[in-house]
């Protein structure tokens, strides 16, 4: 059964559809770059481009203030996989915020969409899109399409088809997240064993490099936001105090991967975290360390600010250096 047929069935649930939508999926191989999500997304955007009257479709992941296209239709115009665009400039953001309908055959009829800078720049004449949200309602991304042709013909009944596709992609993404969490746990344990710091039992600077490479691959495949937090604990004169600092950082960052980078500096990978949540996390870590008597300073950077996590780390360290020099803390 192809995706168009599956989407049609999903729009009108049946027992057969329920089985298809809940079937377990085998984990992707560790070194796979062409994930189930990306394969499905490419099929979806190409199918929609063929039936919707809109020649450009994409699946995009919202990463802070940017939108990262993960898959685009074969005839897509002015949108490229991996090339971020400002989220605030898109009609998709306005759609997510409830400022217009899901399907707009004539874009000029909805000024909120027509005035979006991205819509103006691309000469959009028609638009359709829906958000992808997880079970808790958190925005994961958008499935959207548009036309720049003078008189596009959008068929009636498009919205339930787009909705069915968006639900299918959301389910695929959720399944990949579960598999990926398990894979991440295995990778972290492997790094910890192979590159452990003898004093803190955390991964060392060597292990940190391996973790950044793993998270870079994961972020590229899924478009998930990642933040890097670097923490300076000040001068530490004993192994016991260093272990105490380690315990404080690990307690304040449940779910993060913490590494010891040098004699007084720690790094933490914060996966799947929205950028606006990072400052509060940094403050919690700094406060916990100061309560233990450490002269702590922290800084951070997020995946939307550089091309890869190596660049994100460099930016975070530059900010940490500036904060220490100027005597500033979050």
Automatic annotation (TrEMBL):
Biased composition (Basic and acidic residues): 179-196
Protein name: GGDEF domain-containing protein
Lineage: superkingdom: Bacteria
Stretch list, region Disordered: 15-34, 179-198
Residues covered by the GGDEF domain: 224-330
SUPFAM superfamilies in the record: GAF domain-like, Nucleotide cyclase
InterPro entries the record matches: GAF-like_dom_sf, GGDEF_dom, Nucleotide_cyclase, Rev_trsase/Diguanyl_cyclase
PROSITE patterns: GGDEF
Source organism of the structure: Kineococcus mangrovi
């Amino acid at each position: 059964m192809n995706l168009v047929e599956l989407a049609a069935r999903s729009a009108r649930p049946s027992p057969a559809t329920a089985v298809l939508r809940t079937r377990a999926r085998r984990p992707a191989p560790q070194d796979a770059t062409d994930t189930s999500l990306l394969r499905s997304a490419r099929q979806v955007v190409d199918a929609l481009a063929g039936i919707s009257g809109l020649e450009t479709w994409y699946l995009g992941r919202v990463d802070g203030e940017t939108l990262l296209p993960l898959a685009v239709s074969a005839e897509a115009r002015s949108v490229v996989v991996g090339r971020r665009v400002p989220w605030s400039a898109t009609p998709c953001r306005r759609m997510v915020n409830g400022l217009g309908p899901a399907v707009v055959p004539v874009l000029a009829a909805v000024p909120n969409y027509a005035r979006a800078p991205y819509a103006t720049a691309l000469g959009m004449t028609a638009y359709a899109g829906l958000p992808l949200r997880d079970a808790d309602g958190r925005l994961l991304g958008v499935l959207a399409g548009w036309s720049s042709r003078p008189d596009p013909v959008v068929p009636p009944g498009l919205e339930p088809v787009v909705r069915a596709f968006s639900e299918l992609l959301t389910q695929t993404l959720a399944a990949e997240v579960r598999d990926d969490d398990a894979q991440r746990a295995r990778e972290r344990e492997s790094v910890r064993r192979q590159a452990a710091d003898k004093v803190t039992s955390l991964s060392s600077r060597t292990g940190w490099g391996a973790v950044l490479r793993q998270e870079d691959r994961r972020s590229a495949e899924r478009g998930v936001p990642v933040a890097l937090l670097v923490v300076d604990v000040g001068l530490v004169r004993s192994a016991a105090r260093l272990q105490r600092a380690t315990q404080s950082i690990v307690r304040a960052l449940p779910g993060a991967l913490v590494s010891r980078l040098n004699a007084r500096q720690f790094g933490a990978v914060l996966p799947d975290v929205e950028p606006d949540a990072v400052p509060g996390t940094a403050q919690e870590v700094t406060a916990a360390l100061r309560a233990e008597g450490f002269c702590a300073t922290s800084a951070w950077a997020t995946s939307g600010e550089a091309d890869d996590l190596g660049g994100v780390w460099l930016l975070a360290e530059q900010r940490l250096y500036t904060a220490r020099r100027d005597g500033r803390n979050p």
